[in-house]
Amino acid sequence: MTRPRSELVSPDETPYYHCICRCVRRAYLFGEDQLTGQNYNHRKQWVLDRLRQLQSVFTIDLCAYAVMANHYHLVVHVDTQEAMALDETAVVSRWRKLFRLPVLVERYVVGTSDSDAEQEAAKGIIAQWRERLADLSWYMRCLNEHIARKANLEDECTGRFWEGRFHSQAILDDAGLLTCMTYVDLNPLRAGIVKLPEASADVSLHQRLQQYKANSSSTSAPEKTAPQPNLLPFVRDIKEDKRKGIPFALGDYLAMVDWVGRAHREEQQGCIHSDVPPLLDRMGLDADKFLTAVKPHQLSHGTVIGHTSARIAYAQLHHRRCVIGPVIST
């Protein structure tokens, strides 16, 4: 049974979400159409540029992304507290980057409202905008509509560019976040596009490695690259560091991606379990189940990602007998 978006996306329960959106009618988001010879690689930059713009408006952070030929993946962090802390001036300043302000709000901002009723109405509109700045549905709407309009204009056609709004999965815990990010960063490898995880320039892992090399090299001048969206940093100890970030170390994550990438290139997964990264043990994840979850077309099934205990608690909270999601622990 289809569930309402308000139930699938609830930042009060978890701020992390995995979003997937696919094209229709053989539409291309990236790559080359073998039938016509048309190259669509430039459209990837459309997505990255729009994500970068939306980061200056919404209080939604980007953890990971993958732009594929006919779909894309996002792992996002919805920061409701940041949105609620914004004053009216900041909210209006952000909102006007995407939309034209109504006259009522323009008059309120410049202080020319004629009555208290006008002021209260304007305040109500601004309060609604503040809530939308942390609304995943509005974020995805502003991303997908923008890309669809540009693609239809280029293709000289009308109609749908995306299959639907978007598919979302609630990431219930740190283990689910680790699993989902690994799945997203390994998409080109699993699709056979590249032979090494770091070889793909279409995922957030490549961007993180580029930034790491640039920060580590003090002698050579940084390479000029196209603008990219900001990624939520890895923070090993959030309680001590006090920064907003992904709750494990970058080095541990890279070791995990490398291990999973090697496992996917082996026919028998059991032969490398002696080299299981310690991050799996700390997260309480079962190696076999983890490898199964991040196989092609496995993790994107269902509406939640997390430990079995977290899935049971989520189901009880929503008065459901069970919830569907990948099995990543015993």
UniProtKB/TrEMBL annotation:
Domain Transposase IS200-like: 13-187
Biological-process GO terms, alphabetical: DNA transposition
Xref: Gene3D superfamilies: Transposase IS200-like
Gene Ontology molecular function, alphabetical: DNA binding; transposase activity
SMART domains found in the cross-reference section: Y1_Tnp
Protein origin, superkingdom: Bacteria
Full protein name: Transposase
Organism of this sequence: Oceanisphaera arctica
